[in-house]
TrEMBL record:
It is an enzyme of class 2 (transferase). One of its GO terms (biological process) is L-serine biosynthetic process. Keywords: Amino-acid biosynthesis, Aminotransferase, Cytoplasm, Pyridoxal phosphate, Serine biosynthesis, Transferase. One of its GO terms (cellular component) is cytoplasm. This is Phosphoserine aminotransferase. Belongs to the class-V pyridoxal-phosphate-dependent aminotransferase family. SerC subfamily. It is found in: Cytoplasm.
Length: 358
């Protein structure tokens, strides 16, 4: 069996122990004589999986009672549209803090449905930092930000206190660290980076938001529909939710989010320190104060050297180190399931590559 050092940006690494557990239960799930994929979503064995995933999300993230945990489909991209459909009120703008392409996409969808405003942006600086200083609006429907910018490798270190409900796209750093859920009115994330395979989108939403939501939209697009039906309004992505439940169990075994956060910090520092010590051979994209612990972005001196780096790293068993197609360069995504040893091996390879090509 061959497993690579998987630095994919998403879908991304899944803990080996989780894959093995899924493999061992694949054909006969807990004596049911069938796979989880073959169970009815209305059956007791599946409902146990479903409810356990939701309960473990609550436990690990310390989600207060007044929030709902929903399992939806359509990825974060559907959330870009669902959030304004439900919460953008006429004559009351949605405010956006712009930190990259994903914020732009969220803004573009909201702009189709109502009034929007940009209250902060680092676009003019090629999204090299998160725009922490913005005017906190007192009127409007909500404030939206992207907690981790997968493409640029920037991350909010602390979150702003806003007067309006705060909505966050946490697709690429959910459960990578401890956060105070009560600071947010809605958090959303596709599972395929830190939570398991693609197919399920986690939404954590304050119940009072649902009470005041727009009513004139199709049922499937209303958060209230899914909350009333325990995310079983229609057939959920049962296998993805099962995998999520295994990943959450694994997180608990690792010591929960505090332990995971500490390890993520160490993993990222190993690679950043290699960049910083390289005397300019490797150049980080993000400003130091905004550096992401999830996505580490860098370039080399020129295109030729970058290509050689990507080629040699692939030959040495590293996957997914190419940067996003929109900015090029290199990117190492060190999500929760990427082991410390993979980051150490990458730093070692980077040092060796520099010696060879200097
Ligand atoms: C921060 C962020 N938001 C949104 C998305 C889009 O997610 P999806 O493909 O699940 O719609 C991505 C995908 O990489 C992302 O990194």
């Amino acid at each position: 069996m061959k497993r690579t050092h998987n630095f994919n940006a998403g879908p991304a690494a899944i803990p080996l122990a989780v894959l093995e557990k899924a493999q061992s239960e694949l054909i006969d799930f807990k004596g049911t004589g069938m796979s989880v994929m073959e169970l009815s979503h209305r059956s007791k064995p599946y409902e146990d999986v479903h409810n356990k995933a939701s309960q473990m999300m609550r436990e690990l993230m310390d989600i207060p009672e007044e929030y709902e945990v929903l399992f939806l489909q359509g990825g974060a991209s559907l959330q870009f549209a669902m959030i304004p459909m439900n919460f953008l009120k006429s004559g009351s703008p949605a405010h956006f803090v712009m930190s990259g392409v994903w914020s732009e996409k969220a803004l573009a969808e909201a702009a189709k449905l109502g009034e929007t405003a940009v209250i902060g942006s680092s676009k003019d600086d090629r999204y090299t930092f998160v725009p922490e200083k913005f005017e906190d609006p007192s009127e409007g429907s909500y404030v939206h930000l992207t907690s981790n910018n997968t493409i640029y490798g920037t991350q909010w270190k602390t979150f702003p206190k806003t007067k309006l409900p705060l909505v966050a796209d946490m697709s690429s750093d959910i459960m990578s660290r401890k956060i105070d859920v009560s600071q947010f009115s809605l958090i959303y994330a596709g599972a395929q980076k830190n939570l398991g395979p693609s197919g399920v989108t986690v939404v954590i939403v304050k119940k009072e938001m649902l009470e005041n939501a727009n009513q004139e939209i199709p049922s499937i697009l209303k958060y209230a529909t899914h909350s009333k039906q325990n995310s079983l309004y229609n057939t959920p992505p049962t296998f993805a939710i099962y995998m999520l439940s295994l990943v959450l169990e694994w997180m608990k075994e690792q010591g929960g989010l505090a332990a995971i956060e500490e390890l993520n910090e160490r993993k990222a520092q190993i690679i950043y320190s290699c960049i910083d010590k390289s005397g300019g051979f490797y150049r980080g994209h993000a400003k130091k104060e905004s550096r992401s612990n999830m996505n580490i972005t860098f370039t080399l001196e020129n295109e030729e050297l970058t290509k050689a780096f990507l080629k040699e790293s692939k030959e040495r068993g590293f996957s997914g180190l190419n940067g996003h197609r929109s900015i090029g360069g290199c990117r190492a995504s060190a999500y929760n399931a990427v082991p410390l040893e993979a980051c150490e091996a990458l730093a070692e390879f980077m040092t060796e590559f520099q010696k060879k090509h200097r």
